[in-house]
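Researcher: Next entry in the queue.
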Amino acid sequence: MKSKYKILKRFTGAFLVSLVSIASFNSCEQFDLNETPGESQFIVVPYSTINEMELAVTGMYGKFRDAAQMSTFYVSGWGGDDITTHPLSNKADFREYDQRSLTPYNTRTLDTWRNVYGLIRSANTVLENTAASTLPAPSQARKDVLLGETYFLRAIMFHHLVRIHGKIVIKLDTKLSENPVLSPTVDVYKQIEKDLLLAESLLPTKTTVGSARPNKGSVRAILARLYLDWAGFPVKDVTKNAAAAASANTVITNQASYGFAMVSDLNSLWSEAGKNNTESVFTVEFCQPCGLQNAKYGMLGIPGDIFGWGETFAEVRFYEDFDKGTNYSNFNTYRRDATYYETLPLNADGKPTAAAVAAPAKTWSWRESKDVQTPIFKKVVGPLAENAGVNFYTSRSDYWMRMAEVHLIYAEASGAAGGAIPSAAWESLNKVRRRANNLPINTPAPLIDVVSGNIVELAYTERKWEFAGEYVRWNDLVRREKVAEALGGTARDPQVTIGTKYNADGSKTPQALTKPVNAILGSLANTNYFAPIPQSEVDLYPSLK
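Model: Structure for this entry, 545 residues:
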Protein backbone atom coordinates (compact mmCIF):
# COMPACT_ATOMS: atom_id res chain seq x y z
CA MET A 1 0.00 0.00 0.00
CA LYS A 2 1.31 3.43 -0.88
CA SER A 3 -0.27 6.47 0.77
CA LYS A 4 -0.27 9.38 -1.65
CA TYR A 5 -0.81 13.07 -2.07
CA LYS A 6 -2.48 13.74 -5.38
CA ILE A 7 -1.31 17.14 -6.42
CA LEU A 8 -3.27 18.69 -9.27
CA LYS A 9 -1.00 21.67 -9.64
CA ARG A 10 2.72 22.15 -9.18
CA PHE A 11 3.58 24.74 -6.57
CA THR A 12 6.96 26.43 -6.48
CA GLY A 13 6.61 28.31 -3.19
CA ALA A 14 8.62 27.48 -0.10
CA PHE A 15 6.02 25.57 1.85
CA LEU A 16 4.41 24.29 -1.37
CA VAL A 17 7.57 23.62 -3.30
CA SER A 18 7.59 21.49 -6.42
CA LEU A 19 7.08 17.97 -5.22
CA VAL A 20 9.16 15.09 -6.44
CA SER A 21 9.21 11.45 -5.49
CA ILE A 22 10.95 10.82 -2.20
CA ALA A 23 10.74 7.06 -2.52
CA SER A 24 14.50 6.94 -2.18
CA PHE A 25 14.10 7.43 1.56
CA ASN A 26 10.42 6.74 2.15
CA SER A 27 8.60 4.04 0.24
CA CYS A 28 5.29 5.01 1.80
CA GLU A 29 5.20 8.73 0.95
CA GLN A 30 4.96 9.24 -2.80
CA PHE A 31 3.86 12.25 -4.80
CA ASP A 32 1.90 12.31 -8.08
CA LEU A 33 2.28 15.39 -10.26
CA ASN A 34 -0.35 16.56 -12.68
CA GLU A 35 -0.26 19.94 -14.36
CA THR A 36 -3.88 21.10 -14.22
CA PRO A 37 -3.99 24.91 -14.22
CA GLY A 38 -6.38 26.47 -11.74
CA GLU A 39 -6.92 23.39 -9.56
CA SER A 40 -5.24 22.44 -6.33
CA GLN A 41 -6.10 19.67 -3.94
CA PHE A 42 -4.40 17.47 -1.37
CA ILE A 43 -5.94 14.11 -0.64
CA VAL A 44 -4.50 12.56 2.50
CA VAL A 45 -4.77 8.81 2.92
CA PRO A 46 -4.46 7.66 6.56
CA TYR A 47 -1.78 5.19 7.61
CA SER A 48 -3.09 1.66 7.79
CA THR A 49 -0.08 0.20 9.62
CA ILE A 50 2.51 1.49 12.06
CA ASN A 51 5.21 0.60 9.52
CA GLU A 52 3.84 3.20 7.12
CA MET A 53 4.06 5.85 9.82
CA GLU A 54 7.55 4.66 10.75
CA LEU A 55 8.71 5.03 7.15
CA ALA A 56 7.22 8.52 6.91
CA VAL A 57 9.01 9.73 10.05
CA THR A 58 12.26 8.08 8.94
CA GLY A 59 11.87 10.02 5.70
CA MET A 60 11.73 13.25 7.69
CA TYR A 61 15.11 12.48 9.23
CA GLY A 62 16.40 11.85 5.72
CA LYS A 63 15.20 15.26 4.56
CA PHE A 64 16.72 16.86 7.65
CA ARG A 65 20.07 15.21 7.01
CA ASP A 66 20.02 16.13 3.32
CA ALA A 67 19.43 19.79 4.17
CA ALA A 68 21.95 19.92 7.02
CA GLN A 69 24.78 18.25 5.10
CA MET A 70 25.73 21.56 3.44
CA SER A 71 27.19 24.70 5.05
CA THR A 72 24.27 26.53 3.43
CA PHE A 73 21.95 25.34 6.19
CA TYR A 74 24.00 27.27 8.77
CA VAL A 75 24.71 30.30 6.57
CA SER A 76 23.63 32.84 9.21
CA GLY A 77 26.58 31.66 11.35
CA TRP A 78 28.93 33.65 9.11
CA GLY A 79 27.55 36.78 10.75
CA GLY A 80 29.46 36.04 13.93
CA ASP A 81 32.88 37.40 14.80
CA ASP A 82 34.32 33.88 14.97
CA ILE A 83 33.76 32.73 11.37
CA THR A 84 34.75 34.19 8.01
CA THR A 85 34.96 32.92 4.46
CA HIS A 86 37.10 33.36 1.36
CA PRO A 87 37.29 36.98 0.11
CA LEU A 88 36.80 35.91 -3.51
CA SER A 89 35.83 32.67 -5.26
CA ASN A 90 32.21 31.52 -5.24
CA LYS A 91 31.48 32.42 -1.61
CA ALA A 92 29.48 35.60 -2.30
CA ASP A 93 26.38 34.38 -0.42
CA PHE A 94 28.44 33.60 2.68
CA ARG A 95 30.18 36.97 2.36
CA GLU A 96 26.83 38.77 2.48
CA TYR A 97 26.30 37.41 5.99
CA ASP A 98 29.96 37.89 6.86
CA GLN A 99 29.83 41.55 5.84
CA ARG A 100 26.27 42.19 7.11
CA SER A 101 25.20 43.27 3.64
CA LEU A 102 22.31 40.91 2.95
CA THR A 103 20.11 40.94 -0.11
CA PRO A 104 16.80 39.10 -0.68
CA TYR A 105 18.47 37.37 -3.64
CA ASN A 106 20.88 35.31 -1.52
CA THR A 107 20.54 31.78 -2.91
CA ARG A 108 21.70 30.10 0.30
CA THR A 109 19.03 31.93 2.27
CA LEU A 110 16.47 30.68 -0.25
CA ASP A 111 17.75 27.10 -0.09
CA THR A 112 17.50 27.09 3.70
CA TRP A 113 14.00 28.62 3.62
CA ARG A 114 12.77 25.98 1.20
CA ASN A 115 14.49 23.09 2.95
CA VAL A 116 13.02 24.09 6.31
CA TYR A 117 9.51 24.48 4.97
CA GLY A 118 9.85 21.23 3.05
CA LEU A 119 10.56 19.47 6.33
CA ILE A 120 7.76 21.34 8.12
CA ARG A 121 5.37 20.28 5.38
CA SER A 122 6.50 16.66 5.81
CA ALA A 123 5.83 16.94 9.55
CA ASN A 124 2.36 18.35 8.88
CA THR A 125 1.71 15.46 6.49
CA VAL A 126 2.60 12.91 9.17
CA LEU A 127 0.38 14.64 11.72
CA GLU A 128 -2.60 14.78 9.35
CA ASN A 129 -2.19 11.20 8.16
CA THR A 130 -1.88 10.01 11.75
CA ALA A 131 -4.91 11.99 12.95
CA ALA A 132 -7.01 10.26 10.29
CA SER A 133 -5.65 6.79 11.13
CA THR A 134 -7.06 4.07 13.35
CA LEU A 135 -3.97 2.05 14.00
CA PRO A 136 -4.22 -1.18 16.00
CA ALA A 137 -4.04 -0.80 19.79
CA PRO A 138 -0.65 -2.57 20.12
CA SER A 139 0.83 0.15 17.93
CA GLN A 140 -0.18 3.00 20.25
CA ALA A 141 3.09 3.22 22.19
CA ARG A 142 5.19 3.39 19.03
CA LYS A 143 2.74 5.81 17.44
CA ASP A 144 3.14 8.17 20.40
CA VAL A 145 6.94 8.15 20.08
CA LEU A 146 6.77 8.86 16.34
CA LEU A 147 4.33 11.69 16.95
CA GLY A 148 6.69 13.10 19.57
CA GLU A 149 9.58 13.01 17.10
CA THR A 150 7.43 14.75 14.50
CA TYR A 151 6.50 17.61 16.85
CA PHE A 152 10.15 17.87 17.89
CA LEU A 153 11.45 18.13 14.34
CA ARG A 154 8.82 20.70 13.38
CA ALA A 155 9.71 22.75 16.46
CA ILE A 156 13.46 22.86 15.82
CA MET A 157 12.85 23.79 12.18
CA PHE A 158 10.65 26.72 13.19
CA HIS A 159 13.33 27.72 15.70
CA HIS A 160 16.14 27.44 13.16
CA LEU A 161 14.33 29.65 10.65
CA VAL A 162 13.04 32.28 13.07
CA ARG A 163 16.61 32.80 14.26
CA ILE A 164 17.54 33.69 10.68
CA HIS A 165 14.56 35.85 9.70
CA GLY A 166 12.95 37.06 12.93
CA LYS A 167 9.46 36.74 11.44
CA ILE A 168 8.33 33.64 9.55
CA VAL A 169 5.15 31.88 8.46
CA ILE A 170 3.67 29.47 11.01
CA LYS A 171 2.54 26.68 8.71
CA LEU A 172 0.64 23.94 10.60
CA ASP A 173 -1.20 22.07 7.84
CA THR A 174 -0.87 20.90 4.24
CA LYS A 175 -3.53 23.21 2.81
CA LEU A 176 -2.75 25.69 0.08
CA SER A 177 -1.78 29.08 1.47
CA GLU A 178 -2.96 31.76 -0.93
CA ASN A 179 -1.88 34.71 1.24
CA PRO A 180 0.57 33.49 3.89
CA VAL A 181 1.62 36.08 6.44
CA LEU A 182 4.70 36.51 8.60
CA SER A 183 4.06 35.98 12.30
CA PRO A 184 5.80 38.03 15.01
CA THR A 185 8.74 36.35 16.70
CA VAL A 186 6.87 35.86 19.97
CA ASP A 187 4.06 33.97 18.21
CA VAL A 188 6.61 31.69 16.57
CA TYR A 189 8.21 31.08 19.97
CA LYS A 190 4.82 30.16 21.42
CA GLN A 191 4.23 27.64 18.64
CA ILE A 192 7.70 26.14 19.13
CA GLU A 193 7.05 25.84 22.86
CA LYS A 194 3.69 24.16 22.20
CA ASP A 195 5.26 21.62 19.84
CA LEU A 196 8.11 20.90 22.24
CA LEU A 197 5.80 20.35 25.21
CA LEU A 198 3.72 17.95 23.13
CA ALA A 199 6.92 16.16 22.11
CA GLU A 200 8.05 15.92 25.72
CA SER A 201 4.76 14.31 26.74
CA LEU A 202 5.12 11.64 24.04
CA LEU A 203 8.81 10.80 23.90
CA PRO A 204 10.64 8.26 26.08
CA THR A 205 13.06 9.23 28.83
CA LYS A 206 15.90 7.53 27.00
CA THR A 207 16.25 6.35 23.43
CA THR A 208 17.88 3.12 22.31
CA VAL A 209 19.27 4.51 19.05
CA GLY A 210 21.52 7.20 20.49
CA SER A 211 21.08 10.94 20.23
CA ALA A 212 20.02 10.74 16.57
CA ARG A 213 16.47 10.36 17.91
CA PRO A 214 15.23 12.78 20.59
CA ASN A 215 14.08 11.89 24.10
CA LYS A 216 12.54 13.92 26.90
CA GLY A 217 15.95 15.32 27.78
CA SER A 218 16.53 16.48 24.20
CA VAL A 219 13.27 18.40 24.36
CA ARG A 220 14.11 20.02 27.71
CA ALA A 221 17.52 21.09 26.36
CA ILE A 222 15.99 22.73 23.29
CA LEU A 223 13.36 24.39 25.50
CA ALA A 224 16.19 25.91 27.55
CA ARG A 225 17.73 27.30 24.36
CA LEU A 226 14.34 28.62 23.22
CA TYR A 227 13.65 30.37 26.53
CA LEU A 228 17.10 31.97 26.52
CA ASP A 229 16.38 33.38 23.07
CA TRP A 230 12.92 34.47 24.23
CA ALA A 231 14.47 36.47 27.07
CA GLY A 232 16.71 38.30 24.61
CA PHE A 233 16.29 40.38 21.46
CA PRO A 234 13.85 40.87 19.82
CA VAL A 235 11.14 39.80 22.29
CA LYS A 236 13.05 40.59 25.52
CA ASP A 237 10.70 38.75 27.86
CA VAL A 238 13.14 38.54 30.77
CA THR A 239 10.76 36.31 32.73
CA LYS A 240 11.85 33.52 30.39
CA ASN A 241 15.30 33.46 31.99
CA ALA A 242 13.83 31.55 34.92
CA ALA A 243 12.22 29.09 32.52
CA ALA A 244 15.54 28.64 30.70
CA ALA A 245 17.35 27.96 33.97
CA ALA A 246 14.70 25.51 35.15
CA SER A 247 14.70 23.57 31.87
CA ALA A 248 18.49 23.39 31.74
CA ASN A 249 18.63 22.28 35.36
CA THR A 250 16.13 19.50 34.64
CA VAL A 251 18.44 18.16 31.93
CA ILE A 252 21.51 18.37 34.17
CA THR A 253 19.82 16.80 37.18
CA ASN A 254 18.47 13.91 35.12
CA GLN A 255 21.32 13.54 32.62
CA ALA A 256 22.05 9.95 33.63
CA SER A 257 18.43 8.98 32.94
CA TYR A 258 18.59 10.67 29.55
CA GLY A 259 21.98 9.19 28.70
CA PHE A 260 23.79 12.54 28.54
CA ALA A 261 27.15 13.70 29.96
CA MET A 262 29.99 15.96 28.92
CA VAL A 263 32.93 14.01 27.53
CA SER A 264 36.37 14.57 29.03
CA ASP A 265 38.34 14.98 25.78
CA LEU A 266 37.42 18.02 23.70
CA ASN A 267 39.36 16.75 20.70
CA SER A 268 37.22 13.62 20.46
CA LEU A 269 34.16 15.75 19.72
CA TRP A 270 35.38 16.57 16.22
CA SER A 271 36.41 13.10 15.09
CA GLU A 272 34.41 10.58 13.11
CA ALA A 273 35.49 7.90 15.53
CA GLY A 274 34.00 9.72 18.51
CA LYS A 275 30.88 11.10 16.87
CA ASN A 276 28.32 9.03 18.81
CA ASN A 277 28.97 10.32 22.31
CA THR A 278 27.06 11.37 25.39
CA GLU A 279 27.80 15.08 24.94
CA SER A 280 25.19 15.44 22.20
CA VAL A 281 21.60 15.94 23.31
CA PHE A 282 20.47 15.70 19.69
CA THR A 283 22.51 14.71 16.65
CA VAL A 284 22.16 14.97 12.88
CA GLU A 285 23.78 11.70 11.92
CA PHE A 286 25.84 11.04 8.78
CA CYS A 287 27.54 7.99 7.25
CA GLN A 288 29.72 8.60 4.21
CA PRO A 289 30.21 4.91 3.26
CA CYS A 290 26.42 4.55 3.30
CA GLY A 291 26.04 7.43 0.85
CA LEU A 292 24.80 9.74 3.63
CA GLN A 293 27.78 12.07 3.71
CA ASN A 294 28.43 15.35 5.45
CA ALA A 295 29.81 18.08 3.17
CA LYS A 296 30.59 20.84 5.68
CA TYR A 297 33.93 19.70 7.06
CA GLY A 298 37.30 18.34 5.99
CA MET A 299 38.90 20.19 3.12
CA LEU A 300 36.22 22.93 3.25
CA GLY A 301 38.30 24.45 6.05
CA ILE A 302 41.58 24.22 4.11
CA PRO A 303 42.80 27.09 1.83
CA GLY A 304 43.30 26.56 -1.86
CA ASP A 305 47.09 26.78 -1.90
CA ILE A 306 47.28 23.49 0.00
CA PHE A 307 44.53 21.86 -2.06
CA GLY A 308 41.55 22.83 0.09
CA TRP A 309 38.05 24.02 -0.76
CA GLY A 310 38.48 27.40 0.98
CA GLU A 311 35.04 27.99 2.48
CA THR A 312 35.03 28.17 6.28
CA PHE A 313 37.81 29.94 8.16
CA ALA A 314 38.39 31.58 11.54
CA GLU A 315 38.56 35.30 12.24
CA VAL A 316 42.04 36.58 13.10
CA ARG A 317 41.01 38.90 15.94
CA PHE A 318 38.87 36.23 17.57
CA TYR A 319 41.79 33.80 17.33
CA GLU A 320 44.21 36.30 18.85
CA ASP A 321 41.88 37.01 21.76
CA PHE A 322 40.93 33.40 22.34
CA ASP A 323 40.36 32.58 26.02
CA LYS A 324 42.03 35.76 27.23
CA GLY A 325 40.33 37.97 29.76
CA THR A 326 38.05 35.22 31.08
CA ASN A 327 39.40 35.38 34.63
CA TYR A 328 41.65 32.36 34.24
CA SER A 329 44.56 32.38 36.66
CA ASN A 330 46.79 30.67 34.13
CA PHE A 331 46.23 30.99 30.41
CA ASN A 332 45.85 27.47 29.07
CA THR A 333 45.89 26.66 25.37
CA TYR A 334 44.13 23.28 25.57
CA ARG A 335 40.77 24.51 24.27
CA ARG A 336 42.38 26.79 21.72
CA ASP A 337 44.45 23.89 20.44
CA ALA A 338 41.28 21.79 20.23
CA THR A 339 39.62 24.57 18.23
CA TYR A 340 42.34 25.63 15.78
CA TYR A 341 45.29 24.34 13.78
CA GLU A 342 48.20 26.74 14.12
CA THR A 343 50.26 24.58 11.73
CA LEU A 344 49.58 21.66 9.42
CA PRO A 345 51.94 18.87 8.33
CA LEU A 346 52.11 18.49 4.55
CA ASN A 347 53.31 15.62 2.39
CA ALA A 348 55.69 16.03 -0.54
CA ASP A 349 52.78 17.09 -2.76
CA GLY A 350 51.86 19.87 -0.35
CA LYS A 351 48.70 18.18 1.00
CA PRO A 352 47.73 17.74 4.70
CA THR A 353 47.27 13.97 4.56
CA ALA A 354 47.13 11.40 7.33
CA ALA A 355 50.52 10.07 6.24
CA ALA A 356 52.02 13.54 6.66
CA VAL A 357 51.09 13.54 10.34
CA ALA A 358 53.69 10.85 11.03
CA ALA A 359 56.29 11.97 8.49
CA PRO A 360 55.73 15.54 7.28
CA ALA A 361 57.69 16.81 4.31
CA LYS A 362 56.93 20.34 5.50
CA THR A 363 55.16 22.10 8.34
CA TRP A 364 52.83 24.80 7.03
CA SER A 365 51.34 27.76 8.93
CA TRP A 366 48.18 29.64 7.97
CA ARG A 367 50.27 32.80 8.38
CA GLU A 368 52.20 31.95 5.21
CA SER A 369 49.24 31.03 3.04
CA LYS A 370 49.28 32.47 -0.47
CA ASP A 371 45.52 32.07 -0.70
CA VAL A 372 43.91 33.53 2.42
CA GLN A 373 45.73 34.20 5.69
CA THR A 374 43.16 33.30 8.30
CA PRO A 375 43.38 30.68 11.07
CA ILE A 376 42.26 27.13 10.37
CA PHE A 377 39.43 25.65 12.43
CA LYS A 378 40.33 22.20 13.73
CA LYS A 379 36.62 21.83 14.50
CA VAL A 380 35.83 22.32 10.83
CA VAL A 381 38.67 20.33 9.28
CA GLY A 382 38.67 17.46 11.77
CA PRO A 383 41.54 15.15 12.75
CA LEU A 384 44.21 14.89 10.05
CA ALA A 385 44.84 11.29 11.10
CA GLU A 386 41.40 10.52 9.64
CA ASN A 387 42.50 12.13 6.36
CA ALA A 388 40.07 14.96 7.05
CA GLY A 389 42.32 17.55 5.38
CA VAL A 390 41.91 16.01 1.93
CA ASN A 391 38.33 14.69 2.13
CA PHE A 392 35.36 16.64 0.80
CA TYR A 393 32.80 14.25 2.33
CA THR A 394 32.97 12.88 5.86
CA SER A 395 30.90 10.77 8.24
CA ARG A 396 31.10 13.37 11.00
CA SER A 397 27.77 14.00 12.64
CA ASP A 398 26.45 17.42 13.68
CA TYR A 399 25.74 18.44 17.24
CA TRP A 400 22.40 20.19 17.04
CA MET A 401 23.03 20.91 20.72
CA ARG A 402 25.46 19.54 23.28
CA MET A 403 25.61 19.31 27.05
CA ALA A 404 28.19 22.09 27.42
CA GLU A 405 25.55 24.50 26.12
CA VAL A 406 22.99 23.18 28.59
CA HIS A 407 25.41 23.88 31.45
CA LEU A 408 26.18 27.39 30.23
CA ILE A 409 22.50 28.20 29.70
CA TYR A 410 21.85 27.14 33.28
CA ALA A 411 24.63 29.40 34.54
CA GLU A 412 23.71 32.45 32.45
CA ALA A 413 19.94 32.17 32.88
CA SER A 414 20.24 31.61 36.64
CA GLY A 415 22.05 34.91 36.96
CA ALA A 416 19.73 36.75 34.58
CA ALA A 417 16.64 35.49 36.41
CA GLY A 418 17.60 37.48 39.52
CA GLY A 419 17.74 36.40 43.13
CA ALA A 420 20.27 34.12 44.75
CA ILE A 421 22.40 32.18 42.29
CA PRO A 422 22.35 28.43 43.04
CA SER A 423 25.72 26.87 43.75
CA ALA A 424 24.85 24.33 41.05
CA ALA A 425 24.83 27.15 38.48
CA TRP A 426 28.40 28.08 39.39
CA GLU A 427 29.30 24.40 39.22
CA SER A 428 27.88 24.16 35.69
CA LEU A 429 30.02 27.10 34.58
CA ASN A 430 33.07 25.59 36.26
CA LYS A 431 32.60 22.19 34.63
CA VAL A 432 33.05 23.82 31.23
CA ARG A 433 36.00 25.90 32.44
CA ARG A 434 37.76 22.87 33.92
CA ARG A 435 37.50 20.89 30.72
CA ALA A 436 38.75 23.91 28.79
CA ASN A 437 41.93 23.62 30.87
CA ASN A 438 42.20 19.85 30.41
CA LEU A 439 41.23 19.15 34.01
CA PRO A 440 38.77 16.58 35.40
CA ILE A 441 35.27 17.96 34.82
CA ASN A 442 33.84 17.08 38.23
CA THR A 443 36.84 17.84 40.43
CA PRO A 444 37.09 21.33 42.02
CA ALA A 445 39.99 23.36 40.64
CA PRO A 446 40.75 26.40 42.83
CA LEU A 447 42.86 28.14 40.18
CA ILE A 448 40.13 27.78 37.54
CA ASP A 449 36.80 27.78 39.36
CA VAL A 450 34.83 30.99 39.89
CA VAL A 451 32.25 31.42 42.64
CA SER A 452 31.59 35.16 42.47
CA GLY A 453 31.26 37.96 39.97
CA ASN A 454 28.80 38.54 37.15
CA ILE A 455 27.81 35.00 36.23
CA VAL A 456 25.71 36.24 33.31
CA GLU A 457 28.73 37.79 31.60
CA LEU A 458 31.07 35.00 32.64
CA ALA A 459 28.81 32.35 31.11
CA TYR A 460 28.15 34.44 28.00
CA THR A 461 31.89 34.87 27.46
CA GLU A 462 32.52 31.18 28.11
CA ARG A 463 30.04 30.39 25.32
CA LYS A 464 32.10 32.60 23.03
CA TRP A 465 35.14 30.38 23.36
CA GLU A 466 33.44 27.02 23.86
CA PHE A 467 31.33 27.19 20.67
CA ALA A 468 33.72 29.02 18.35
CA GLY A 469 33.22 27.75 14.81
CA GLU A 470 29.98 25.90 15.62
CA TYR A 471 27.57 28.46 14.11
CA VAL A 472 26.40 29.47 17.61
CA ARG A 473 28.08 32.83 18.13
CA TRP A 474 25.89 34.91 15.80
CA ASN A 475 22.71 33.96 17.67
CA ASP A 476 24.37 34.94 20.94
CA LEU A 477 25.35 38.33 19.56
CA VAL A 478 21.78 38.91 18.37
CA ARG A 479 19.95 37.95 21.55
CA ARG A 480 22.33 40.09 23.62
CA GLU A 481 22.33 42.94 21.05
CA LYS A 482 26.11 42.92 20.94
CA VAL A 483 26.64 42.81 17.18
CA ALA A 484 28.07 46.33 16.95
CA GLU A 485 30.31 45.68 19.95
CA ALA A 486 31.70 42.50 18.38
CA LEU A 487 31.95 43.65 14.77
CA GLY A 488 32.21 47.43 14.87
CA GLY A 489 35.21 49.73 14.66
CA THR A 490 38.50 47.90 15.06
CA ALA A 491 36.95 44.98 16.95
CA ARG A 492 36.95 42.84 13.83
CA ASP A 493 39.41 44.66 11.61
CA PRO A 494 42.73 45.07 13.44
CA GLN A 495 46.10 45.90 11.97
CA VAL A 496 48.20 42.88 12.82
CA THR A 497 51.67 41.85 11.71
CA ILE A 498 51.16 38.42 10.26
CA GLY A 499 51.77 36.69 6.99
CA THR A 500 54.74 36.31 4.72
CA LYS A 501 55.99 38.14 1.67
CA TYR A 502 57.76 35.81 -0.76
CA ASN A 503 60.74 37.57 -2.36
CA ALA A 504 62.22 36.95 -5.82
CA ASP A 505 65.29 35.24 -4.33
CA GLY A 506 63.10 32.82 -2.36
CA SER A 507 63.56 34.53 0.97
CA LYS A 508 60.60 35.45 3.15
CA THR A 509 59.82 38.75 4.87
CA PRO A 510 57.06 39.29 7.46
CA GLN A 511 54.44 41.73 6.27
CA ALA A 512 51.65 43.69 7.93
CA LEU A 513 48.20 42.64 6.76
CA THR A 514 44.83 44.17 7.52
CA LYS A 515 42.42 41.57 8.84
CA PRO A 516 39.79 40.34 8.38
CA VAL A 517 39.56 39.89 4.65
CA ASN A 518 35.82 40.58 4.57
CA ALA A 519 35.25 44.03 6.04
CA ILE A 520 31.81 45.03 7.32
CA LEU A 521 29.74 46.76 4.61
CA GLY A 522 26.25 46.84 6.11
CA SER A 523 24.63 48.25 9.22
CA LEU A 524 25.37 46.73 12.62
CA ALA A 525 22.14 48.10 14.12
CA ASN A 526 19.50 45.68 15.37
CA THR A 527 17.36 46.59 12.35
CA ASN A 528 19.85 44.59 10.27
CA TYR A 529 20.08 41.50 12.46
CA PHE A 530 17.66 39.37 10.45
CA ALA A 531 17.86 38.21 6.86
CA PRO A 532 15.22 39.43 4.39
CA ILE A 533 12.63 36.98 3.11
CA PRO A 534 13.85 35.52 -0.21
CA GLN A 535 12.66 37.69 -3.09
CA SER A 536 11.38 34.72 -5.09
CA GLU A 537 9.02 33.90 -2.21
CA VAL A 538 7.82 37.49 -1.99
CA ASP A 539 7.21 37.45 -5.75
CA LEU A 540 5.07 34.34 -5.34
CA TYR A 541 3.32 35.60 -2.22
CA PRO A 542 3.26 39.41 -2.00
CA SER A 543 1.71 39.06 1.47
CA LEU A 544 5.22 38.17 2.68
CA LYS A 545 6.62 41.56 1.69
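Model: DSSP finds 18 helices and twelve strands in the chain.
Researcher: Noted, moving on.
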